[in-house]
């Protein structure tokens, strides 16, 4: 097995709170040592001067579209795009065709990922059969096949009684139930945040209350059942507040925020670009501010991209007809680094929210640079300037609101299991 | 002067609006002639691209184009949401390849004319997009009020009805406020969009408050099939509370005029007699619509360079 020496970077290891300049040696697929003057005979050297060296990122919210929608993305292209962004592990949602609601589909995804993806892939299985919100899935069998969590994601479970039973049953398997909180009756046909922007655009509004009502319901149900609730893509100030209060009461709850909800407001939709259409929608400046504060103070545990590829012809429609979602792997680092540049969060704490916390939520390895840990490492140049062009990225899709924009910060190298899988100058290297 | 397209009143300066209204005065004269036609746009092709059906607006644009001697083509793609034959942008690119001189677009979804204008070389006129804007409607309303009151500056305009779903309301709010008038809106609370006051109007759920001292009372059409039972309890309750009759009109100034973009639901937004008789000016609005649209088509299309010089350029005789 090869040896790799990452030379002269700023080691950021949230698990040990280590933040210092040091070399990192990987051997046998694992972290072998950190320090200076390491025995590096025969090792391939990666120059990390001026860069951050951190545990590989873990993305709890992705759509890889395979099986069934390979024209948007597949496990190979999604995995390549992920490592180009610094993500070494991905949890993928169940809204494939067929839906990932039985062990055979879970098996298939894991098998394809082993063959095709440079990033580790952990399937999130559906919480109900066919994402229909009627019959719960066989959680034990899906767990045995490799599922790390359960979720109907965008097909919000509106039946509160069924939701209660799902949360109760999930205690048998002790994994999180991931919820996309939007009350469908309040969303109705809403496509942009309800407020001055929806009024100006003349597009149907989706009120913040649609999310907040549902977060409140699910928090109460988590409290009732003792299950682990994970709130996906928090987007409103009210939702952050409800989650913060629930955590203070000791409810078993974790949460994620996306790079777009942390940095973009609904004003991004003012020119009707359908690449700004996402569910939940981009919100007001006050909501963005509240999400950032929530990420900083730990109310929100982690950053997840909700990478949701759609083909150009699918996005090239009326704003109301275009499917919601945007691609996020390759832009997540520079976009979220905005919080570091504005001194809202330290590099070490930001890395914790990209790696250590999400790995912990799905109880998978990663998020640590300790000796013997898996050799999943990312090297980031926080100052590198570049212009993002989705056509030059690894995703099959191009639906990004950041297309053509100048970015600051870039993933320079990504290692999975001690192997270099991406380098900015050489591209994706395996498989 | 206005740019390449007319997508909304929001994009216009006061001077642009005045220019269009002044031009429309001359166009109105054309319609009063025995031969209602000038050769100004001879050899030009105007396409009415109506994704959403509209007999009235399409006819108005068609007549406006024909009075300027343009060749007017009506194009109404099937817009079944179940069976989408072609994307809007593909339709636009297809049209563009036929080299039209102007494309008039109506669509049920806000923003479509803007997206089409980004693709098309030819000027685009928004003939109504979702609940966003309907600029030529606002221009004809401004023209009509100017005609009636001799000014726009300093007037009080009350817009009554379903503001939430109304592109006419948004365009008129921009238009009247830019021209120095004060705009109030009144509706049952579910029909008042959030933050409407950010557009520079005063919103009220009291009809009396909105009409108090108004120079112009503009009623909007209620889409009864969509709204009754969800946004308002019933059409009857709406007619009782927000329908304008002569008794409620008394809240406004004695010489207030009544407007409606049409078609009127008689006995709902306006009482029967108020629909037909003064002080309502509904048919003047329709008549002025042709003149205003002629002005817009002329200003956007008439001064564009032709690919090949015409043998005898017909000028607008005024």
SSE arrangement:
The complex is a heterodimer of chains A (431) and B (318).
Chain A: E1 3-13, E2 18-27, E3 30-35, E4 44-47, E5 52-55, E6 57-62, H1 75-85, E7 87-92, H2 103-116, E8 120-125, H3 139-145, E9 149-153, H4 160-173, E10 177-179, H5 184-187, E11 192-193, H6 196-201, E12 205-206, H7 208-225, E13 229-231, H8 237-248, E14 253-257, H9 259-263, H10 285-297, E15 302-303, H11 312-315, H12 332-336, H13 338-341, H14 347-361, E16 377-387, E17 406-416, E18 419-423, E19 427-428
Parallel strand pairs in A: 1-4, 1-5, 6-7, 7-8, 8-9, 9-10, 10-13, 11-12, 13-14, 14-15
Antiparallel strand pairs in A: 1-2, 2-3, 5-16, 16-17, 17-18, 18-19
Helix pairs in contact in A: 2-3, 4-7, 7-8, 8-10
Chain B: H1 14-31, E1 45-50, H2 55-67, E2 71-75, H3 88-96, E3 102-107, H4 112-119, E4 124-129, H5 135-149, E5 156-160, H6 167-178, E6 182-186, E7 202-204, H7 207-211, E8 216-219, H8 224-227, H9 235-242, H10 246-249, E9 257-259, H11 272-276, H12 282-302
Parallel strand pairs in B: 1-2, 1-3, 3-4, 5-6, 5-8, 6-7, 8-9
Helix pairs in contact in B: 1-5, 1-12, 2-12, 3-4, 5-6, 5-12
